[in-house]
Amino acid sequence: xxxxxxxxxxxxxxxxxxxxxxxxxxxxxxxxxxxxxxxxxxxxxxxxxxxxxxxxxxxxxxxxxxxxxxxxxxxxxxxxxxxxxxxxxxxxxxxxxxxxxxxxxxxxxxxxxxxxxxxxxxxxxxxxxxxxxxxxxxxxxxxxxxxxxxxxxxxxxxxxxxxxxxxxxxxxxxxxxxxxxxxxxxxxxxxxxxxxxxxxxxxxxxxxxxxxxxxxxxxxxxxxxxxxxxxxxxxxxxxxxxxxxxxxxxxxxxxxxxxxxxxxxxxxxxxxxxxxxxxxxxxxxxxxxxxxxxxxxxxxxxxxxxxxxxxxxxxxxxxxxxxxxxxxxxxxxxxxxxxxxx
Amino acid sequence: xxxxxxxxxxxxxxxxxxxxxxxxxxxxxxxxxxxxxxxxxxxxxxxxxxxxxxxxxxxxxxxxxxxxxxxxxxxxxxxxxxxxxxxxxxxxxxxxxxxxxxxxxxxxxxxxxxxxxxxxxxxxxxxxxxxxxxxxxxxxxxxxxxxxxxxxxxxxxxxxxxxxxxxxxxxxxxxxxxxxxxxxxxxxxxxxxxxxxxxxxxxxxxxxxxxxxxxxxxxxxxxxxxxxxxxxxxxxxxxxxxxxxxxxxxxxxxxxxxxxxxxxxxxxxxxxxxxxxxxxxxxxxxxxxxxxxxxxxxxxxxxxxxxxxxxxxxxxxxxxxxxxxxxxxxxxxxxxxxxxxxxxxxxxxxxxxxxxxxxxxxxxxxxxxxxxxxxxxxxxxxxxxxxxx
Lengths: 342, 389
What we know:
The complex is a heterodimer. In chain A, helix 1 (2-32) runs antiparallel to helix 13 and helix 8 (186-208) packs across helix 9. A two-stranded antiparallel ribbon of chain A has the order 1-2. The longest helix of chain A is centred in the first third of the chain and has 31 residues, at 2-32. Helices cover 68% and strands 7% of the residues of chain A. Chain A is globular, with a radius of gyration of 22 Å. Chain A is mainly alpha-helical. Chain B is an all-alpha fold. Chain B folds into two domains: 31-281, Orthogonal Bundle (ABC transporter involved in vitamin B12 uptake, BtuC), CATH 1.10.3470; 357-389. In chain B, a hairpin with a 2-residue loop joins strand 2 and strand 3. At the A-B interface, helix 6, helix 12 and helix 15 of A face helix 6, helix 12 and helix 16 of B.
C-alpha cells in the first residue's frame, strides 16, 4: 500500500512537468494548428533562465587580504557576492531563492521569445503541411539547443532549491505509518503545487476572461470569429507567448529536480508529444490528465517488483501507451471526435 | 510530371555509375577523396535513397528510420561474430532483419497518417533505442556498443578451415574491407540501390505511391486499397536503412545504440530534404553536402579560421572570424540547424528545386523581355492612335 502511495507521489512531479509542457503544446496546436517541435527548446530556455539568474546573482567581489594567508601560502582572497555586500541579509536571501525568483525573469523573457517566434517564423507556416511545420521547428530546436550549448557547455548545471525546502519530508510518519517508508523532498511538493497553480491559472484565463472566451471560440471556428471583426491572429500570437511562458516556467522550476543541460528539451519534447497524443490533440484537459497519468505510470513501471517480471518496461511504458492509444483510440483520451482522426 | 524515356534512364544510370566509381578521382580537388569519407557518402547515400522512397514518394514522414539502421548494424556485427567475417551474410541478414522490423512497425504505424504516423514511428524507434540501452544489453552490449571479440566462434569460417589470430577484420572472400576496397564494395551496392530506386520511381508501383501523396482520400474513394502499397514502400525503405546499417558495420565492425536515437532519424530527414525529397538524385546531393561540410567545418577552429581569412585587413579578419567561429568546429550542429531552417523556409524542394529555378531563369527572363516588348508596342500603338485622333 505505502509502496503504491510512494510511486504515485514520485510520478506526480514528473507528471506535473509533462502536463505543463503538453498544455502549451496542445494549446498551440489547438489555436494555431501548428505542430511545434521547438516547444521542448522553450522548456530548456526557461531552465537556462534560472541558471543565468543564478550566475548573475552570484557575481562575486574578490578582495585580496594581504595580512592573511591561505594554508598554501598565497594571500587570502575574500569572495563576497555583490548582492550580499550591497543588501546584506536580503542579498543572501535573494541568492538562496534564485530559482523561484527566476520566474520574474522567465515570464517577460519567454513572452518575448514566444511572440517573436510566432511573428517571425510560425506565422509563415500556417498554410504549409504538418511535415514542413515539424521540420522547421525541429531546425529551430537544434539552433536554440546549440546556442545554449555554446554558451553554457555540455554538462548539466545543478541548481539548488531554497534552503527552507531543500530537505525531505517523512510523509509516512505524518500519516501514522512506519517512519522512512515514504520520504518526499519538499521541493517536489512545491513543484506539484506550482504546476497545479499554473494549470489552474491557464484554465481560469481561458474560461473566465473575455480574452479566453474569444480564444476558445477561435479554436472552435476561427473563420467565424474573424468574420465578427475580431483580430484573432493577434490573440493567437499572445496564446503562443503564453504557451512559451508556461513551458519556460515549468523548465525553470524543474531545475532543482533535474540539473538542466542543453538537450533536456529534446528529451522532454518527445515525451510530451506522446502525452499530447494520449490526451487528445488540442484537448487541454486531456493534456493535463495524460501528463499526470503517464508520470505516475512511469514511476510504477520503475518499481523493482514490476521490472522483475517485465524487464525494461520502465524504459518503454510511455511509448507503449502511446502506441496502444493511437491504434485503438486515435483521438486520445479526452480528444474531440473528428480532430486529427485520420 | 514528365517521365524520362528508358533511353534517358540508361544514360542516367551510366553517368551515375561512372560518377560513383570515379569518385576518388573527381573528389580529390576538394580534398574529399579519402576512403573513410567516401564510404560515408556511399552508405548514407543508400540510407537517404531508401528514406526518399517512403517520404519522397508517399509523403509519409517517418521519424524512426534510425531504428532500422541500428538493427542492420547489430545484426551485421552478430553475423561477423557468430557466422563468418565474410561481409555477404552480414549484409544479407542485416537487410532482412531490418525488413522484418519494418514490416512489424510499418504494419502498426501505417494505420495512421500525418503527424500521428510521425509520432508512432518516433515512439517505436525510441522504444528500440531505450531497450537497446537497457534490458537488451546481452544482445547490444549497452553503452559500450557491440564489437568483435577474440573468442568469437565464426562457425562458418572454421567450417572452411579459416582460423584467425587476434582480432579479425571484415572481408569479401579474402579481400579486406578496409580503405578503398571497402569503398568500392559500398559503391557497387550504392549503384544497385540507386538502380532499384530508379526502377521504383518509373514503375506503376511508384506512380501509385505518388498518387497516395497527392490525394489519398480520392484514391480510396475509387476503391483502391492504399495500405499494402504504403507498407511495401515502408518495408523497402526500412531494408535500405538496414542495408546502410550493415554496411556501417562492414566498414567498422562496431554497433552502438546512439545510431538508433531519434536525432539520427532527424539527420536522414534533413539530408533528404536538403537535396530535394521526391527527386532521384536529390537525397544523394544532400548526403554529399552534409557529410562533406560536416567533415570540413567540424575540423575548423579559431586558429585555422584566422589562417583562412588572413588575406583580409586585420579588423575585418577579426570580425569575420568572430562571426564565423560559432558555426564551425563544435558549433557545426548550429550551422546544420540554421541550414535546415533556411532550406525548409525558402527552398522546400531542396537543392534540386534551386537548380531547377536557376535553370528556369533564362526562360523567365525571355518571357519578361517578351512581355516588356509587347507592352512597349502597345503603348506606342496607343500614342499613335492618340496623335491621330
